[in-house]
Design brief:
The protein is mostly beta strands. The protein has a single domain, classed as Lipocalin, CATH 2.40.128. The protein has one helix and nine strands; from the N terminus they run αβββββββββ.
Length: 129
């Protein structure tokens, strides 16, 4: 009986921990962004292999990304094509709600542990319905 209770306890903890773990599928959808200078853009996540970034009227595929959902905020690094080369960007992402994200993108150097006003481009994304 005692072994059965321990098994059930461990199972419940495992299921709860897995239920709290987010992944890229939680972000599927089209997200509209407006930054501090009122520049508009979108982040469209179709699935884990098809992600697009639109900014200043240019839609670009994210050709590679890594996302670490164990970090708080989430580390989301990605590569976009730029002419004949590519741009590697680091970013952090916080899920505010099912319909709102906070995202800060850094073009050079190391990523800070948390959001900062000192560097990077901060945007809030709202999910289109």
């Amino acid at each position: 009986m005692k072994k059965m209770l321990i098994f059930i306890f461990v199972l419940i903890i495992g299921v709860t921990a897995k239920a709290q773990q987010r992944d890229i599928d939680d972000l599927v959808g089209k997200w509209d962004a407006v930054d501090a200078s009122h520049a508009k853009g979108t982040l469209q996540i179709v699935d884990s292999t098809h992600i697009y970034l639109t900014f200043n009227g240019q839609k670009k595929p994210i050709i590679h990304y890594t996302a670490d959902f164990t970090k708080k905020p989430i580390w989301f690094d990605f590569v976009v094509p730029e002419g004949d080369s590519t741009i590697h960007l680091k970013s952090i992402l916080r899920i505010i709600s099912n319909n709102k994200l906070q995202w800060q993108i850094f073009t050079g150097g190391n990523r800070p542990e948390y959001f900062t006003k000192d560097r990077g481009d901060m945007v809030y994304l709202v999910k289109k319905k």
